[in-house]
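#help-structures
NK: newbie question, is this the right format to request a structure? protein is PE-PGRS family protein
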Amino acid sequence: MSRRGNPRSTRRRGARAAIGAFAAAGTIGGAFGLSPLAPAPPAHADADLDWLVELFAPAAGLAAGSDPLEASDVFGLDLYTVLHDQMQIWITSPLGIQIDTTINQLAGAYLIGNGIDGTADNPNGGAGGLWFGDGGDGYDQSLAGVVGGNGGAAGMFGDGGAGGDGGAGAAGGIGGAGGWFMGNGGAGGAGGEGVLGGVGGAGGDGGDALAWFFGNGGAGGAGGAGGSGAVGAGGGMGGAGGAGGASLAAQFGDGGRGGAGGTGGTGGAGATGADGQAGDFASNAGAGGDAGDGGNGGSGGTGGAGGAGGASAHGTAGENGNGGDGGRGGAAGLGGTGGVGAAGTAAHPDGGAGGNGGDPGQAGGGGAGGAAGVGGRAGTGADGIAGAAGLAAHSGGNGGAGGAGFDAVTGTGGAGGHGGNGGAYGDGGNGGAGGQGGRGTDGSDGTGAGATGHDGGQGGTGGAGGTGGAGGALGGNGGHGGAGGVGGTGGTGGNGTDGAANGVAGGVGGNGGDGGRGGTGGTGGTGGAGGTATHGSAGQQGVGGAGGTGGTGGDPGAGGRGGDGSASHIDGGR
C-alpha cells in the first residue's frame, strides 16, 4: 500500500556522487565533536564537492540586506534536504554498503545504515544507524484486527520510518521519531477498513521530530472507512485520523498534519418482503396470502474525526485533518408478491382471491460528516460532508392473481377469484378466469309408437371472471379482469319412436327431439382500478365467455310396416 508522508522511495532518490555525501557526513560529524572511525576517502576527479563548500560558505545564498530570519529558514530546510538525499545515495550505493558495513563491524555497533523494514513476524521497523540512517517502515498488516507495525526511530541524522497500515478494523502503526540532530518524524499508518458495519481503524500518529537543529513532525495516518452494514443494518463509523507528530526542534521545524477521518460505511439495503403463500381451501378459504413489506435501509455511518495537527516548539503547528464524509444510506427493500388464489374445486367452485402485494420499505438516511481535527494550526481542517440518503424503491409488490373458477360438470361454472391489490407502486393482480358451464342434460326418447323424442337440456352458464386487483397507492397499474367462462354445451335431443304397423300403410315414425341450447357465456371480470398517483392505469375489462354449443337433435323414428294385400285390396300396404 502507498505511504503518506515521507515514503522510502522519496528518501533514497539519486542526485549526487556517493563519495561526496560520505565526505559531507564526516564534516557534519566533526563539527559536533564526532570523529569518523575512518577518514573520508580521497576525492577523485569525478567527485563533485563544490556543493558542500557552498553550503557552509558565509555568503552562501545570502544577498546584502537580506532578512536574517528568512535566510535561516531557507538554510535549515535546504541544508537538511540536500544532506539527507546525499546520505541516502551513499548508504544505498554498492560502495557505501561495503564501507558502512566495515565501519559498523569495527565499531561493534550499527552506526551507519537504514533500519530494517518490519515483517509479518517482526512488524515494527528497525532503528536507523546511531549516526546516519532512516528508521525502517512498519509492516502493513493483512490480518483483520491486527495493528500495523510502528516505524523505526532514526539515530542522530535521518527520518523516522513510516507506520504500517492496520488490518481490517485495526489502527495504523505510529511513525518513528526523527534523528536527534536533524530529521523528520515518520508518517503514521492508515487504519484498516471496518468489517460488516464495524468501526474503521484509527490512523496512526505521526512520529515526533526530536532534532536539535531541524525536523518536521510526521503526518498522521488516515482513518479507515467504516464497514458497510449487513441487510438493513447501519454502516460503521469511520476511524479517526491520527494526530500529527510534534516538532520539538530547538531551531527549525513544523508540526505534522493531522490525518483525515475515515468515510462512514454504507448502510445495508433493506430486505425484500416475503412472498405470500398460495391459496389453500383447507387452511385459508382458498385466498392467497398477503406479501410482506420490504425492509428499511440502514443508516449510513458517521465520518471519522480528523486528527489534530502537531505542535511546534519554534515553528508552525501542523494543519488539522479533515473530518471524514458520512456514509450513504441503504436502499429501501422491495415489497413481496401476493400469493396466488387457489383454483376452484367441486366442493368450492369459486376460485380464491389473490393476496395483496407488500409495500416497499424506507430508504436509510445518510451519515453525518466527521468533525475536523482540533488543536493544530487555527483555521485549518474542514468537517466532513453528510452522506446521501439511500435509493428509494419505486416498485412495490404486485398483487397475486385470483384462482380460476371450477369447470362445472352440470350447472353454472365457478367464478374466478379477485386479483390481489398491489403494494405502493405495485400492480394489481389479474382476476381469475371463470369456470366453464356444465353440459346440458340429454333429452329422453319418445314413448309410444311414432312419438317425438324430448328436447335436450340447456348448457350451464359460464362462470364470471374475477375482478382485477387495484394498483398500488403510488402509481401501480390495476390488474386485468378475468375472462368469463365458456357456456356449457346443450344436451342431445331424444330419439323419436318407430311408427306402428298398419293394415294398409305403415305408421309414421316419431321425430327426434331438438338438441338443447348452448349455455350463456360468463361475464368478463372488471379491470382493477389504477393507483392513485398519476402513473397508474386501470386494468382491462375481462373478455366475456363464449356461448355454449347447441345440443345435437335426436334421430327420428322408423316408419311402421305396411299390411299384406287382401281380396278387397289386392296391393300390399306401404
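mod (FA): yep, format's fine, and the C-alpha cells are attached above. Residues 1-73 have pLDDT under 50 and may be disordered.
NK: thank you!
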